[in-house]
Structure formats: structure tokens, C-alpha cells
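Problem statement: downstream parser choked on a complex file, so we are re-checking the raw output for the 2BA run. The parser issue turned out to be on our end (a line-ending mismatch), but while we're here, posting the original submission so the record is complete.
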Amino acid sequence: MKLVVAVVQGKDAEGLMAALRQGGYRATQINSSGGFLRENNVTIMTGVNDAQVPDVFRLIRENCYTRTQYVNPLLPIMEPGEFYMPSPVEVQVGGATVFVLPIVRYERIMAAAAGGVGVSAGD
Ligand code: 2BA
């Protein structure tokens, strides 16, 4: 079994989550942000059988797109009176950054709450 962790752009997350659901995959979405652009992106985790990994990659490829973004580089250290005109740098973001990790153990723990569903002890 494998954990597929995909960092995708926010614009693609909804479509990918829907495709995973339709494919019968369970998935968890975590709001995240990239260390370089500091923009919001989404990290999607899905635990699947080894044989399903290629299909999950297919869904990621079909739903995540490469986009061009422009980043303003950091200002250089300047002497008084010097003038610097920043020119934005072009970067290609996505389709997706995907990691595949081995799962040592997977368990869904399903237990009824003591004393009935939805009842918790107060203090
Ligand atoms: P960010 O770190 O915000 O990076 C956004 C895009 O900026 C990257 O797109 C890449 O085109 C560019 N970039 C990132 N670091 C750079 C650097 N040191 N120099 C020049 N350009 C740089 P992607 O490669 O498609 O990455 C999209 C997002 O995926 C990243 O957002 C980050 O959140 C995640 N990611 C990418 N590689 C990762 C890794 N090795 N480990 C963990 N997360 C990663």
C-alpha cells in the first residue's frame, strides 16, 4: 500500500478531489502554502493499493495544469542614491508535485462512543 501526497494549485484541487471521489478513492485535503512563492496551494493525501498508484497519477495528470507566475526577486543591498528597477521573474508552477510513500500500517478505527453516539461526558 502507498500514500500518494500531491501538492497542487488551489484552482485544481476541487477538480482533482472530485475525480478521486468518482474513482472510489478516499482522500484528505490540507491547505498548504509553497515555501518559494508563499502562495496558498493544496496538499492532497490518498492511501491506495500499489496497483492503483498509476490510476491516481492519471487523475492528477488529467486535473492539474501548469501555469506561469511572475515573482519579484528580493531587492539587492544598495548604496544611498542607487536606483534599482525590479523585473519580475517567470516561473512555471505545477501541474503537481507528487510523492509516493510506503505505508507501514493502515487502519480505520471504528468504535461507537461510550454511552451512545454523540454523547460526551461533561465535567
Ligand atoms: P513553491 O515553493 O511556492 O514553488 C512554486 C514554484 O516556484 C515551483 O513550482 C517552481 O517553479 C518555482 N521554484 C520553487 N523553488 C524554487 C527555487 N529555489 N528556485 C527557482 N524556482 C523555484 P513547482 O515546482 O511546480 O512547485 C509547486 C509547489 O510544490 C511548491 O510551491 C511547493 O509547495 C511544492 N513543492 C515543490 N517541490 C517540493 C519539494 N521538493 N518538497 C516539498 N514541496 C515541494
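For whoever reads this later: The first strand starts at residue 2 and ends at 9.
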